[in-house]
Design a protein that fits this description.
- The protein is of the alpha/beta class.
- It has a domain of about 160 residues: Purple Acid Phosphatase, chain A, domain 2 (4-Layer Sandwich).
- Helix content is about 35%, strand content about 15%.
- The strands form 2 sheets. The protein has a 5-stranded mixed beta sheet with strand order 3-2-1-8-9, with helices on one face.
- Helix 3 runs antiparallel to helix 4.
- The longest helix has 17 residues.
């Protein structure tokens, strides 16, 4: 039986991601690889990182990629650019683009070689839209950000699954499974604490791969679910 590996936010750091997958994990076709979103922005190679994920699937590897909030930024910026007519829509389009640029979108634009969002390759938008927002396993719920436990149905709040930051988990509502998420960068010590604690109902995996100048950050993590083996790959791109 193969292993199940989970990798959080890779943010356009292709060389780091490939090194983790190919050399540290040594991914096999009998394994399952689950990715927590945020494949774009901040790092230098967003387009080629997505291409690599798609290539792994085409080569027969079992890869499930979840949609993150940075992919949501991209889709909304693209939709705004392609649907804008009139002054109010132009203001909305400019605000959406600025919000995305303020959160690392400029590196994605460069990696795709476009400046006008109306020319952004639609095939990548369609790929992003096809991605699930969460995965249910026997012992874990896997999601980019988290869940809105104030909602009657926590799986109905799609924005929360990509964007929520602070939430209180009701373990009974998720059959006492643990939530595995990325989204919010946390230091290595906290990742280990969330993994090892018997009282935490979550495992946080995002170590801020792009935060190379901040002590305790700057690694791309990988967690194997059956053994809870944790790997850390220092950033090789930035």
């Amino acid at each position: 039986m193969g292993r199940t590996w989970v990798i959080p936010d890779s943010h356009g750091c292709l060389f780091t991601f490939r090194t983790l997958v190919e050399h540290q994990i040594g991914l096999k076709r009998s394994d399952r690889l689950i990715l927590l979103g945020d494949y774009i922005d901040r790092g230098p190679d967003s387009m080629r990182l997505i291409d690599y994920i798609i290539q792994l699937s085409h080569e027969g590897y079992d890869v499930t990629a979840i949609r993150g909030n940075h992919e949501d930024f991209l889709v909304k910026a693209w939709e705004s650019a392609n649907n804008s007519r009139g002054l109010l829509n132009m203001v909305s389009r400019n605000k959406m683009r600025k919000d995305w640029m303020d959160n690392g979108g400029a590196t994605t634009i460069r990696s795709f070689g476009v400046d006008d969002m109306r020319l952004f390759p639609k095939s990548y938008i369609e790929w992003i839209k096809s991605l699930p927002l969460y995965i249910e396993l026997d012992k874990f719920l896997i999601v980019h950000a988290g869940f809105n436990f104030e909602a009657p149905d926590i799986f109905a709040d799609e924005q929360a699954m990509m964007w929520i930051r602070d939430y209180k988990i009701d373990p009974e509502r998720i059959n006492y499974r643990r939530i595995i998420h990325g989204h919010v960068p946390v230091p290595l010590d906290f990742i280990h604490a969330s993994l090892e604690s018997e009282t935490y109902h979550f495992i946080a995996l995002d170590n801020g791969v792009y935060m190379t100048n901040r002590p305790g950050f700057g690694n791309l993590m990988a967690l194997e679910l059956s053994s809870l083996r944790l790997l850390a790959q220092p950033n090789l791109d930035m």
